[in-house]
Amino acid sequence: MNKILDPPAERNLPPATARRMREHLLRATGRRPARPRLRVAVAALVLLVAASGVAAVVWNRPDGQDVQVLAMGPGELSPTLRTAAEQCLRWNAYEAAGRAEGERQVSLSLADLAVATERGDRALVLFMNDIGYATCDLRSAGPNRAPSGAAATNPWPHGSWLPGPVQRLLLTSTEAGGGEVSVSGRVSGRVARLVLDHGDGRTTVARLSGGAFGLMTTGARLKIDHGPELVSYDDRGVEIDRRPLFQAEDQFAHCYTTPTGKLIYGRPAADCLPAEAWHR
Q1: Residue 170 belongs to what domain range?
Q2: What does the pLDDT average to over 127-139?
C-alpha cells in the first residue's frame, strides 16, 4: 500500500511529545527552535475559569501587583470574594436590626448575590432580590487589621421599574472622576449587550446575567473630561441607550414614566421617556 500520502507519525503523538521531537531535530541540524510569542491585549491577561457551567473572569495585570475578579452569582466566588460577601451580609443584618419598627427591611442571603468584584484587598459586592438591594465596599482583614468599609441597603424606590434600559447602582473609581472603575447595576430585558465607552476610542464590555451587570476596567485611566458613557444594545446590535457614566439619577437629561403615565425618575417634562421593567 502506498503510504506517501499518510500523515506523519507525529500527528498521532501527544502535542508535548511532538514538540520535543521537533526541537531535538532542529538542534541536531543546527537550527534554533522558535519560541512562541505571547500577545497580551490591552496590557492585561484574560483567564476564563469554568465553574458549575458558568465562568468567572480574572484580570492579572502584568506588574503582578493587582489581581481583579468579576463574579456574577454565588457559584463563581473566589474564597476571598466569598469572605467579602459574607461580611457584607453580616453588616446588612446588623443595619436591618437597627431600623425603626415598621420600616421596610431588605432581607438578603448569599443566594441573592448578583455581582462581586475584587481588586487586591478591596472588594465590592451587590445583592439584589425583589424587595431591594444591598451593597458593600470593603477592605479585607489583614495582619492586626479587622475588615472595614461601608455598606448600604435600600428597598427598590420604584419596584421593578428602571430609568430606561439600564440603571447604575454602584460605581467606584480609583481617582476623583476617573482612573480605574468598577460598575454594577440592573438592565431591562431589551439589553443584550452593555459597553463602557471610555471616550478615547477604547471600550470595556460588561458581563450580563439575570438582569444584572458588572464590569471592571484595567489600565483604562478613565477621565471624566473624555465623557465615558454606558452604551446599551439590543439583540440585533442596535444602540438603544447612551448615558454618561458619572451622571447621577437626579441629573438625568430625561424624565421616565410608567405605562400609566406615573413619573418615577427625573423632573416633570413633556418629553419623558418610558420606564422599563426589570426581571431577574
Answers
A1: 66-277
A2: 91
